[in-house]
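User: For my dataset I need records formatted as: sequence, then structure tokens, nothing else. Please produce one.
Assistant:
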Amino acid sequence: MINKDDFIKALSNPDWYNQGLIYTISDGKDTCTKALYKTWVEFVDDIPRLVENKTTFKIQGFETYNKEIYNKCFSLSTVWMKPVDCHAYFSYEGQGSFDTHADPCEVAIFVCEGTKVLTINNDEVRLNKNDHVFIKSNTPHKAYHETDCLSLSFGTYEYGNNNVKDLGIKL
């Protein structure tokens, strides 16, 4: 679906940064790069240091990257009966991403490059290039990367008024 060059192209695109879609993950926490860096140039200038420190990168909104990923999101949305988005992750050999956690939605993880080991409900699942796994909502899981790994995470989300805060505006 994508390769490392695609990920680098998105990571170095100011539009992804300006939309607040690029995150770094360290110590089990993801942080939006717009909160860490005043400008896109400042972020790009710091990428070599982040790479040297083997920082994991996440890019949200990857359902808009190409037609194949968009179609996969659409296909999964017909199965899960909810809209589906896609996050792209790049992590280095020997690194994890988040501590054990449970997502409130269904998740499908697809490995584009490398090897990822997932612990799902205390069972280990090894994913190599082109492998995928489905994780039911509220299922505890954690990832560890045996090699540098590029993966996509597809998940459902709610839409509509559930996500809108009432600010008391009257028209």
